[in-house]
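Students often ask why inverse folding is considered easier than folding. One informal answer: many sequences map to the same fold, so there is more than one right answer. In these notes we will look at a single instance of the problem. The structure comes first.
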């Protein structure tokens, strides 16, 4: 098999064993597909960790204790060679929700004693049939919102349990036509170049014609909780792009760690993708004296020659903490703990 098929097989086998352990709330016994120097990136308050023992102790064990019968509900899975390192590494992307019975408080977020959804996206790098590093993004604010403990002002978009692709074909187990993946990656790269070209313009808005070069008019943008989802280019601009541009300055694009595509799907993450300075008003924050980092995941579905759907996760709790707002501490204070 080729390197993409090999990477998929390694990650699928690992996830099958790992998810079975999660369902029983037990530490996974089968981790042979992880490299001895496995490196994990997590969102606030977890950050970087070395080795599965540390990841399990600090993240998965407390989560599986609070979320009984925890299971992965995957909507998208694809793999590809990395476009940002001269195609020397191979990555997979899995995206969906972790679902369980939220029966114990987690990170101070109050239990609901009901089914709860924790949105996730996970990127894994595979080398010599072992998983050597990963980035695991979750929508912590989304869980707080579902638990009735949302700590920020109202969103410009709408947040809900986001669906998978409209076409319901996001889990790519079979080999895909390489030409289709190349078309998807080229479209994503052109879209990035278009957006980066307007970062330093004095005009806080941009023409919808610029977006229409790469986006379908009926695009759906599934943004992180705190911003929310929008539908159509027009609403995307008014409910996300314009507030983002009007309230943030000194935007600097830092690049990505991984960016790849397969078939009609593609995505990337950075650590951090970009930095910017809050002019006041964004996410309800006052003006900031210095720039803050944004760690971002984007996953896309291409339809023809345009991008149709885009799922986005941002480590907004980390972004907020850099500006003096610890959402977990705020929640603790609001609960009188």
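Output (designed amino acids):
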């Amino acid at each position: 098999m080729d390197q993409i098929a090999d990477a998929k097989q390694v990650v699928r086998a690992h996830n099958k064993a790992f998810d079975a352990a999660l369902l029983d709330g037990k530490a996974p016994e089968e981790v042979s597909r992880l490299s001895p120097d496995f490196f994990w990136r997590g969102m606030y308050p977890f950050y970087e960790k070395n080795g599965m023992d540390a990841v399990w102790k600090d993240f998965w064990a407390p989560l599986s204790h609070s979320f009984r019968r925890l299971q992965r509900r995957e909507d998208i899975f694809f793999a590809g060679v990395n476009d940002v390192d001269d195609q020397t590494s191979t990555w997979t992307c899995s995206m969906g929700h972790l679902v369980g019975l939220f029966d114990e408080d987690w990170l101070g977020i109050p239990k609901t004693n009901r089914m709860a959804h924790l949105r996730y996206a996970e990127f894994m790098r595979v080398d010599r049939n072992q998983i050597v590093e990963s980035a695991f993004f979750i929508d912590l604010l989304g869980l707080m919102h579902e638990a009735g403990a949302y700590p920020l002002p109202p969103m410009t978009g709408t947040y809900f349990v986001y669906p998978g692709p409209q076409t319901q074909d996001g889990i790519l187990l079979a080999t895909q036509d390489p030409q289709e993946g190349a078309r998807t990656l080229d479209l994503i790269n052109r879209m990035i170049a278009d957006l980066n070209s307007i970062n330093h313009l004095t005009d806080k808005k941009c023409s919808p014609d610029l977006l229409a070069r790469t986006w379908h008019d009926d695009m759906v943008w599934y943004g992180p909780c705190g911003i929310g989802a929008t539908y159509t280019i027009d609403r995307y601009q008014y409910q996300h792009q314009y507030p983002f541009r009007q309230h943030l300055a000194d935007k600097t694009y830092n690049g990505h760690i991984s960016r790849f595509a397969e078939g009609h799907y593609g995505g990337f993450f950075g650590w951090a993708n970009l930095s910017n300075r809050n002019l006041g008003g964004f996410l309800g924050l006052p003006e900031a004296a210095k720039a803050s980092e944004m760690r971002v995941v984007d996953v896309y579905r291409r339809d023809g020659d345009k991008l149709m759907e885009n799922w986005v996760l941002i480590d907004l709790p980390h972004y907020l903490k850099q500006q003096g707002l610890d959402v977990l501490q705020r929640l603790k204070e609001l609960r009188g703990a």
